[in-house]
Amino acid sequence: MKTIKTLAATLLLVGLAIPAQAKLRVVTSLQDLASIAEAVGGDRVEAFALARGYQDPHFVDAKPSFILKLSRADLLVVAGLELEIGYLPPLIDQSRNERIHPGSAGYLDASTGCDILQKPTQVVTRAMGDVHPYGNPHYWTDPENGRVIARAIAARLTELDPAGKAAFDSGLAAFEARLTAEEREWDAKMAPFAGARIVTFHESWPNFAKRFKLEIVGTVEPKPGIPPSPTHTLEIINLIAKEKVGVILVEPYFDRKTPDFIAEKTGCKVVTFYPSVGGIPELKDYFGVFGHNVEAFVKAMSGKGSQ
Amino acid sequence: MNTLRSMVFVTAIATLVAGIAAGQESPPPQPTPAATPTPTPAPPVNAGSAGGASQTSNYFNPSVSVIGNFLAVGGQNTLESLPSASLRESELGLQAVVDPYARADFFISFGEHDVSVEEGYLTFTSLPAGLLVRVGRMRIAFGKVNTMHLHLLPWPDEPLTVVNLLGGEEGWVGTGISAAKLLPLPGDVFSELTLQVLRGDAEGLFVAGKRSDLALNAHYRVFADLSDSTNLDLGLSYGLGPNGASPDAKTALGAVDATLRWKPLVRGNYRSAILRGEFFRSRRDQSDGTVSADGWFLSGEYQLAKRWWVGVRGEAAQHADDAAVKDTGEAATLTFWPSEFSQLRAELRQRRYGGPNSASASEYTANEVLLQLQFAIGAHGAHPF
Predict the structure, then answer these.
(1) What percent of chain B has pLDDT over 70?
(2) Are the Cβ atoms of B306 and A227 closer than 8 angstroms?
(3) Cβ-Cβ contacts under 8 Å, B125 against chain A
(4) Which among A55, A62, A161 has CB closest to B382?
(5) Which residue in A89, B232, B341, B362 has the fewest CB atoms around it within 10 Å?
(6) Could you say which residues of chain A have pLDDT below 50?
(7) Across chain B, what does the average pLDDT equal?
(8) Do B39 and A104 touch (CB under 8 A)?
(9) Domains and CATH numbers, chain B
(10) Tens of pLDDT along B233-246?
């Protein structure tokens, strides 16, 4: 009898203790958003990203195991701009969790307030390839957009967990301070290459290019989502020679065959550029991605010497 | 008994309505203390600049999509006489959120001369107790292939399991109510139980003599990630309905389905594979006793390159009303996707149709080639999974 009482008391205590210590469960579509949420939320949040950093964020499978994650989430952070349209809407519908439905406090579209490029100014059709009618969804490749995202996440975490306000404020302040310091360093390293012309595989890098004053003159894909064609590849080879392009940036999840072929014909370099945290195990947080990419870019461009 | 069944149906609907009411009045408790009472919803993302002012009057219109399915067939088959060329199906999809509690999905299927509502249902997405409830007409969660629309199948045709044991090519489509609940399992294993109570007739499968004759289906699904790149999807189904052979005659159906997917995440755009199979059993009460018929298919699909897939399928199924008649077949497919929105597929198929008495005497073999062109316009739907 005494044992039962003790047991009951323990269970009660545990039961009371759990809600007090429970972390906010944040689910994000991208690992970058999870990294920012962790930086801001510290140990008051627990973040899980649906897409791995090394996979194409356009083509994520709507796995039922994600329904489980979403059913328990307090906050869902998405990149928006229809990046997740191929998998997320049915998962949200099946999550049985109205707190993360669009329009609820637990749904945050991280693109709000960010500098979004390539918003179509004319009617878009699929003759243009897999275009995103709300603008280019790869906007987190500009660290200043990362700052906007961090502020939005901090504000939303505070709304969901007012008791954590001080923690979120200081988490955000630390994130921003580090970002400012790192940006200074990245800017200094990239400064010598201002105005450099580059080619990218997919239209993933306009925000990065704008931030670091690079000029994207072409893409290996003839149109977004359409694989390289021989004619277009030839055009790109001519373009690279004409525009004195030094590097082709390719995400880890694209086939390097065509970029390598172009490089062989033109002498320019192919650089694997990581769009997200977790692209390789070394890329542990949002800062790490920029650090790595900037380093790789500088190395490839410096190797070019006179060009 | 019949009254009891009607009552069960009515009670189910009443419970549902009560559930919605409860959902409206008292939202599930927030885990965090003192959530702000009226959170300001985020403004629609960059809506104005992209859509343009002319779009605002259409703002709440459902997303519209049309999927065309053209099929050309060569070879000889006197038993399943598909036309040489046909616009086999034009599927119109109309989908939108109804209100904060529900969404609606309509899939209208146009043949060349006729039209039918393939699916049209309301899904309550904000119910208490982790329930997901659908009301309307829907493809029934019996096995996996039966839940898939024609354009999502990895072949241009339905396997013999569906044709012989689920009432024909259309499969089992029913009208009624469906409730699904997540049943937590340890780890990140997804487990879901779906119960469906339906009107008692379904084309080619069930015949209801009276209003109180209902059809039922139960489906249990388990999904587990074996690794980042591999996952396994298993399902068990049980269906029951009146078959009209005599006033109390029933058909009971059982199914096991399994899908093993492999997609290395880094190279996932270029390489992946799916292995799937289903086993069906039908027990049909008839005047000459209960007919027990089985069927199965096994199919593998392999992605060779970003836009190319190959596949093979083996299949066999007895006839639901005469187990002595057994059809078997093999098929090989080659699929090319010019883009995410169009698809060209060729299938070489051999089907051997059994005769009523002895397998050898009246067996008929058909060798055919099926060429399918599918294309989608309109709203970007979710990718099939």
Answers:
(1) 84
(2) yes
(3) 93, 96, 98, 101
(4) A62
(5) B362
(6) 1, 12-20, 305-307
(7) 87
(8) yes
(9) 98-378 (2.40.160.10)
(10) 999 999 999 999 99
Q: So where are chain A's domains?
A: 2-184, 191-303
Average pLDDT value for residue range B196-204: 95
The more confident residue out of B184 and B28 is B184
Among 3.40.50.10890, 1.10.3720.10, 3.40.50.1980, 3.40.50.2020, name the CATH number for the domain at A191-303: 3.40.50.1980
Domain A2-184 CATH superfamily: Nitrogenase molybdenum iron protein domain (3.40.50.1980)
pLDDT at B380: 81
Q: Do domains A2-184 and A191-303 have the same CATH topology?
A: yes
Give A-chain residues touching B267 at CB under 8 angstroms: 253
Mutation test of the interface with chain A: which of B183, B260, B269, choosing the one with the most A Cβ atoms within 10 A? B269
Query: If 0-12 CB within 10 Å is exposed, 13-18 middle and 19+ buried, where does residue A225 land?
Result: buried
The pLDDT, as a whole number, for residue B14 is: 56
State the complex-level ipTM: 0.86
Instruction: Name the token pair of A295.
Output: 């380093």
